[in-house]
Amino acid sequence: MLKSKKLLKLKEINHGFFNKNGGVSKGIYKSLNCGIGSKDNKKNIKKNLRIIKDKICKKSKEIFLVKQIHSNKFIFISEKTKITNRSKKVDAIITDKKNFPIAILTADCVPILIYDNKRKMIAAIHSGWKGAYNGIVKKVLKFMFKKGCVSKNITVAIGPSISRNSYEVQKDFKNKFIKKDRRSLIYFKNSNKKIYFDLPNYVKTQVKLLKIKNIDFLNKDTFIKKNNFFSARQSIKFKHNDYGRNISIIVIN
What we know:
Largest sheet: 6 strands, mixed
Shape: globular
Structural class: alpha+beta
Number of domains: 1
Distance between the termini: 19 Å
CATH class: Alpha Beta
Oligomer: single chain
Strand order of the largest sheet: 2-3-6-5-7-11
Number of helices: 7
């Protein structure tokens, strides 16, 4: 598990960016697979989620998860919200509930954890390229502003994801981003007749554009095997028929 040094300073929350270590799953899911949508044994996934929950927030019944769809949609959960786990198709969760751990799952996409230490509000975002392109980070943060959060009080931790050196894309992918905003050129590089995209720094810039200065960038490439994260692209490389998911979680104590 990795922790953001900046979020660690804020004692009223707990959080973690988890990799493969510390679970009960076997085979290609070894060992801390939290991907409910994966083909892994469901009992093992539930045990893994319990392991995570007990490390982060023993007081809660379960970790709140959603059905991620690579969108820019989010859900806000207040004390009054009545909702069941994984009943919503969105890619971000915002809440001000105490002892209510929220989490998102990734396997190369960018996990983002957010906290406003005055408003006492947290968010967890799953941002693949589609979510990033369609402004999920901006949508979540602007909603938080409407709810009373302020840029100077917000800390954003950008977790482990696939880095530019590992994220090969096609020309039409690059053109799509450039057509939207020519300044996006800086997130692409050409090497050996291949094109590579810098998704985490693209996301980081979206945060900075909202005048948030307190940003922690956990620069770990999920594609590199020694870093020990589940990776969709790595599973394709090794011709696996599925892959596990890493979990990133945050809770107000």
